Amino acid sequence: MRLLLLFPIYALSVWSQPADVPGSADPFLFRRIPGFQIAEFQEQPQGAFPLEAAAATDSPVEGRKIEITYRNGGQPISAASIFQHYQRAALGLGGKVLKQSPQSVSFTVQGKSSELWLAIEAPDPAQYKLILVERGTAIPQVTPDDMFATLERDGRVALYVKFNMDESVIKPESQDLILKAAELLKRSPVPRISAEGHTDFVGNSATNKVLSIARAQAVVEALMKLGVDPKRLSVTGYGQERPIADNKTDEGRAKNRRIELVNPQFQPKATSSSAHPKDAKDAHDHPLFPRLPSYYLFQAEAQDSTDVIFATGKPGESQDVTVHGKRQDLIYRFDDLGGKPMPGQDQILKSYADAARSAGGSMQYESSSAAVLKIGELWVRIATASGEQYTLTIVTAR
């Protein structure tokens, strides 16, 4: 997953030990407690999450399912320690606790195209069971309205048109995207649009530049056939010269292979609002912690009175602090329609750490994927598995 909360949790087979039952492995995102071995392992393409662990959900949660029983050959470990181990992993991915009892705890983590539902049952100190269900969610479809808003806001919109390798013939599955782009340009008052082709870094630079121009030309010709005035359109290509993502990963290379429709005369508009057309209804940034550019507020939740656990200290030596107060959870997702580079985890964490320090706050905890900040009675956790999505958990202590 580009650890990116698109999941596929069943990039699962990367963490096993010799004493484990054959064919078993930890889930990639939720590794076992050291000293435990896998005694039982079952994977199902379709299974149900325990309804009693799903809290307010009154209908079955179904999806790809894995059940693992871990047994400990060493010193006994308390249920609370087992739960804390998995809670840190879930909260580090921007998840939340669903339900907890002395012998069990459950979590959910929201990804871009799926949800993870995790239950841990610890009936005795010598063993515990992990139940993990991945439920797919509908990926929001890009609409002409989305494209129009992006072109207005950023002066460009990225089209992820599909081509065969080293070819410039548009694949049939991209025809709907071309139709939407044509509708966008017919609605837009922008007088001139440059179609700019981009590739990944596979191959050589000169060939990629020629290919990027050919692909941009193919898109322009398709738009003209759909009634877009050819006098408005021009073509150029940059090959591999302007990546917006890491070329070392499949995900990054896919983002770099794009056609951008660009308004050459675009001038950014000064605005005091960071609102995005994809923002959840009635959702707003926290006044001390505005979002990073090119992110939209996918989901916002609030609780007037609750307990939240924050890590403090150094990774591996951290201690948990329970803070009671008003809680706000804000989940932000990167909008790749604008064709802008996606920040890395370190950039996201640094941005919020700098904001906290400028407001007189301090860093309480920091790892590669999470940070905890404190400003007076305000506690903030930033959790991100990749630049694709991050979560702010903000608690005003009472």
Structure report:
The chain is of the alpha+beta class and 398 residues long. It has three domains: 36-136, TATA-Binding Protein; 144-262, OmpA-like domain (60s Ribosomal Protein L30, Chain: A); 295-397, no CATH class. Helix content is 20%, strand content 35%. The protein contains six helices and 16 strands. It has helices at residues 79-92, 144-154, 175-187, 205-225, 250-256, 345-358; strands spanning 36-48, 62-72, 96-101, 104-110, 114-124, 127-136, 156-159, 193-198, 233-237, 258-262, 295-312, 319-334, 362-366, 370-375, 378-386, 389-397. The chain has a six-stranded antiparallel sheet with strand order 1-2-6-5-4-3, covered by helices on one side. The chain has a six-stranded antiparallel sheet with strand order 11-12-16-15-14-13, with helices on both faces. A four-stranded mixed sheet has the order 7-10-8-9. Helix 2 crosses helix 3 and helix 3 (175-187) packs across helix 4. The longest helix has 21 residues, at 205-225. The radius of gyration is 24 Å and the shape is globular. The model is unreliable at 1-16 (pLDDT under 50).
Q: What's the overall average pLDDT, rounded?
A: 84
Contiguous uncertain segments of 5+ residues = 1-16
Domains (count):
3
Beta-sheet strand percentage?
35-45%
Total beta-strand segments = 16
Helix/strand structural class: alpha+beta
Order of helices and strands: EEHEEEEHEHEHEHEEEHEEEE
Briefly note the CATH topology name of the largest domain: 60s Ribosomal Protein L30, Chain: A
Instruction: Report the total helices.
Output: 6
- Shape-level CATH architecture of the largest domain: 2-Layer Sandwich
CATH class descriptor name of the largest domain: Alpha Beta
Biggest sheet features: 6 strands, antiparallel
Overall geometry comes to: globular
Report strand order across the widest sheet. 1-2-6-5-4-3
Amino- and carboxy-terminal Cα gap: 38 Å
Considering DSSP H and I runs of 4 or more, what fraction of the residues is helical? 10-25%
Tell me the radius of gyration: 24 Å
**Mind telling me the CATH superfamily name of the largest domain?**
OmpA-like domain
